[in-house]
Specification:
The protein is α+β, with helices and mostly antiparallel strands. Helix content is 39%, strand content 17%. Helix 2 packs parallel to helix 3. The longest helix is centred in the last third of the chain and has 24 residues. The relative contact order is 0.19.
Length: 146
């Protein structure tokens, strides 16, 4: 066989043996943070903030994941998220904010059960969180690459 054919066969074998280009990750705990989202409407700060994901990887699989979102000032978005001064001033806005917040846990659960960020489905009303989640997971996985 010619050297070119052997080289091509060797490269093809290497690709097939590594799972068609899938990456290998080191066991451990990893944290990723998304860039800050800032609403383009200066008068509307709804949704502004960033997301932080914490992953646990064992045997090249994500075995645990948490995802939290934060205001730009670093305060955690929690059951108070969507209130104004601790009061529900706009019930629709509060419900939307809380729906987006509950999506954080669902995104994390999907990642663990499906094992791949590409298979995590976006949830209506929580698209900003979805984008932050994907970005934060990417940052964490980059740290875990071997």
């Amino acid at each position: 066989m010619s050297k070119k054919i052997l080289l091509v066969m060797g490269m093809l074998s290497a690709v097939l043996l590594t799972g068609c280009g899938e990456k290998n990750y080191a066991d451990g705990n990893y944290t990723g943070k998304s860039e800050a989202y800032i609403n383009e409407d200066e008068d509307d700060t709804a949704g502004n903030g960033y997301g932080v994901v914490e992953l646990t990887i064992q045997n090249n699989a994500i075995t645990a994941c948490t995802f939290k979102t934060y205001e730009l000032d670093g305060s955690l978005k929690d059951e108070e998220y969507g209130k104004e001064g601790g009061v529900i001033a706009n019930k629709d806005f509060y419900n939307k904010a809380q729906k987006a917040l509950s999506a954080c846990d669902k995104y994390a659960e999907q990642l663990v059960s499906k094992g791949n960020i590409k298979e995590v489905d976006a949830i209506s009303g929580a698209t900003v969180n979805y984008n932050e989640f994907k970005e934060a997971v990417s940052v964490a996985l980059k740290q875990a690459e071997q």
